[in-house]
Design brief:
The protein has a single domain (6-214), classed as Thymidylate Synthase, Chain A, CATH 3.30.572. With 229 residues, it is of the alpha+beta class. Helix 1 packs antiparallel against helix 6 and helix 2 packs across helix 6. Strands 1, 2, 3, 6, 7, 8 and 9 form a seven-stranded mixed beta sheet that branches. The protein is 29% helix and 29% strand. The chain contains seven helices and nine strands, in the order βαββααββαβαββαβα.
């Protein structure tokens, strides 16, 4: 029986990870129809990144240009007015205003404040609201959970879990936004260095419309002297 393969990718930085993932999905991803109709190539992925803030964070062949990524990163700020922009939800809002028992929980503040209390496997934040997200036909959050652990000597690791991910057009900018936010909200206040990121996705996919461009993606050179184009 055919099914989407599961793959572990180990990379130094984001750009390297994105290129490796694109190459693997284009070569090995299962062709599967999406809920919206178009075909996709699909895998289940675990991506380990050892130096998440190393430059370049954006691969030069990532289709969204740097200026637009900078605008997207604003969506990961506390004062971003996502309702004014017409969005149905916002990752940052789910993380800092998660509804629970009649009140909103600031999960990021809780993680930030609890990390100094010692090593723990309990510092996590979620986005999924079952009573809403299970029943709407679209606009559910792709990011499901963040897990952060201080591991001693001023170091920390972060795991992030996603139910669905557009690898070619969104993965790289998603990670830049997430890493920018977690550095500001959690790491810097606790003087922590992020030494490992594990990014897990149930369905990491490339849509058929992007197959031609994705097939042209090349790995980064060992010593990149790179200009975005």
């Amino acid at each position: 029986m055919k099914y989407p393969p599961t793959n572990l990718i180990q990379a130094v930085g984001l750009a390297d990870a994105w290129a490796q993932a694109v190459n693997f999905v284009m070569k090995n991803g299962m062709q599967i129809k999406t809920e919206y109709g178009p075909m996709s190539r699909d895998i289940c992925s675990v991506i380990e990144i050892r130096e998440p803030y190393t430059e370049p964070m954006l691969h030069p062949q990532f289709p969204t240009k740097e200026l637009h990524v900078k605008e997207y990163v604003k969506q990961w700020e506390r004062d971003y007015d996502w309702k004014k922009q017409g969005f149905e939800y916002n990752y940052m809002d789910r993380l800092i205003n998660y509804p629970s028992r009649g009140r909103d929980v600031d999960q990021l503040k809780a993680i930030r404040d609890l990390l100094p209390k010692g090593v723990s496997r309990r510092r996590q934040a979620i986005t999924w609201i079952p009573e809403r997200d299970l029943f709407v036909t679209e606009d559910q959050p792709c990011l499901q959970r963040l897990w952060v652990r201080a591991i001693g000597d001023g170091n920390a690791e972060m795991h992030c879990m996603w139910r669905s991910r557009d690898l070619f057009a969104a993965w790289n900018s998603n990670m830049v936004g997430l890493l920018t936010m977690i550095k500001r909200e959690v790491l810097e206040p606790n003087k922590l260095k992020l030494v490992k990121v594990v990014d897990f996705c149930n369905s990491l996919h490339i849509y058929e419309a992007d197959w031609e461009a994705a097939s042209m993606v090349k790995p980064l050179p060992k010593s990149p002297q790179m200009m975005r184009y």
